[in-house]
Specification:
Keywords: Membrane, Transmembrane, Transmembrane helix, Transport. The chain has helices spanning about 10-20, 25-30, 30-35, 40-70, 70-80, 85-120, 130, 135-155, 160-185, 190-200, 210-220, 230-235, 240-275, 290-300, 305-340, 345-365, 365-395, 400-410, 420-444. With about 450 residues, it is mostly helical.
């Protein structure tokens, strides 16, 4: 059996895990959630819930992964000693494959808009119409390109692929965001955006809808439930102090979401000052794909001279954010094929990439009926239920002594620390109830 890969450094793991968590949702979802839900009051609630809800589940995945040194299917099978444990792992693998199937389509859109920005810089305007069109052929081509980039990184394995590129892409991502923040903040209208983002409306804190939105954002922004953190945890060195590393991952993820808001919301109000519509007919801020593909490109078009370059940097940022998440998603089923089925890594990567690309093509040709359905089935239903099941594994099924033994490998005094005094009962009783409440509330 081939030797399993392992992250060579703590910073490599933190950047890879944070890269998995930092995705397109942090950049186009979190900022408008903040601006629409009480500004800094939402940020306060989000950060609080990220640590009281998402962090404990993150730790469950990391501890299970590093202890079992295995993919999700084998890890949960080993803990449960039952076939149904393996089926839960397969459920997670299918879910993450479906998420990557629609995510690759969106990642392809980002590459298409980046290509258009390059065309604008070199004044090759005749190519823009096709690149920005919504023809199936265009979507398939750029989806294929995105999957090829993802697969190319994952074929390198842990140190030479995922870690190598994460330590390059994540700092670049942060650098580009900060550079754009500085530029946008100097434009007319930016001050209004900063006010919408940073001035708290504390009267909203008790709003149940705000709390549910913040819980959902905190849970999903950390890439939980589908095995990415479990698999990454399985590649972590035994001497690392897991609770400390988990806090670092959570802080980087939260930090990127917060600074993304410092870019997106001021940029929207700069767009407003330049005559671009940023509110829906109902008075809410435009969000999601309309924000990324309509509002911000319209803003870049209004900036004379440097607008094309700002657009180029922005969509480079979006491609990087998409890639850091997609490589972790692809690694989940690849790890299963390599470890459980004995398939060589390169072959396993291209098999899974091909299957997921085929799913993407099916979605593209049935876009109206399947795209929204797949997103809802995976992120709204399957992902929170998987998070709930992982809490059950960590809190009810797995032996406490085995958990403590794993924590001791990175900290001999683990049982005397605050983490061990709180986390075991918290993940056993509190997290499942809160996640179940969030899930039921999301259905109403």
């Amino acid at each position: 059996m081939a030797v399993r890969g392992e992250f060579s450094s703590r910073i490599g793991f933190i950047l890879a895990a944070a890269g998995s968590a930092v995705g397109l949702g942090n950049i186009w979802g979190f900022p408008t959630q903040v601006a629409s839900n009480g500004g800094a009051a939402f940020v306060f609630v989000y950060v609080l819930l990220a640590f009281v809800l998402a962090y404990p589940v993150l730790m469950a995945e990391l501890i299970i992964g590093r202890s079992q040194r295995a993919n999700m299917v084998d890890a949960l099978g080993n803990i449960s000693h039952k076939k149904w444990g393996r089926w839960v792992g397969i459920w997670g693998g299918v879910t993450v494959a479906l998420i990557l199937a629609f995510y690759a389509i969106v990642g392809g859109w980002m590459i298409a808009y980046l290509t258009d920005s390059v065309f604008s810089v070199v004044q090759f305007t005749s190519g823009s119409e096709w690149v920005l069109g919504f023809a199936p052929e265009r979507n398939i081509l750029f989806c294929l390109l995105f999957m090829a980039l993802t697969a190319g990184i994952v074929t390198g394995g842990i140190q030479s692929g995922i870690e190598k590129w994460s330590v390059r892409l994540m700092p670049t991502l942060i650098f580009l965001i900060i550079g754009l923040i500085v530029y946008v903040s100097l434009q007319p209208g930016a001050v209004d955006g900063w006010k919408a983002y940073l001035v708290p409306d504390f009267s909203r804190i008790a709003d149940p809808d705000l709390l549910v939105s913040a819980m959902g954002q905190a849970f999903f922004s950390m890439s939980l439930g589908v095995g990415t953190m479990l698999v990454y945890g399985s590649y972590m060195a035994k001497h690392e102090n897991l609770p400390t590393v988990g806090v670092s991952v959570a802080l980087v993820d939260i930090g990127v979401a917060v600074i993304a808001g410092m870019l997106i919301i001021p940029a929207m109000y700069v767009a407003l000052a330049n005559g671009v519509t940023i509110f829906t007919e109902q008075g809410a801020l435009i969000e999601g794909d309309q924000l990324i593909f309509n509002v911000l490109p319209a803003l870049f078009d209004t900036i004379e001279g440097v607008g094309v370059y700002v657009g180029l940097v922005f969509f480079a940022l979006m491609v990087i954010a998409a890639l850091t998440s997609s490589i972790s998603m692809l690694e989940v089923p690849v790890a299963f094929l390599v470890e459980s089925k004995g398939v060589a890594r390169t072959k396993a990567v291209w098999i899974m990439a091909s299957i997921i690309f085929a799913l993407s093509v099916i979605i593209i040709f049935n876009f109206e009926s399947l795209f929204g359905l797949v997103i809802a089935l995976t992120t709204k239903y399957s992902q929170p239920l998987l998070g709930l099941v992982l809490c059950v594994f960590a809190g009810w099924i797995w032996n406490r002594h085995a958990i403590l033994s794993e924590l001791r490998s990175g900290n001999e005094q683990a049982e005397h620390g605050l983490f061990w005094k709180i986390w075991p009962w918290y993940v056993k009783f509190v997290c499942p109830v809160v996640i179940l409440f969030m899930f039921i509330r999301s259905l109403t």
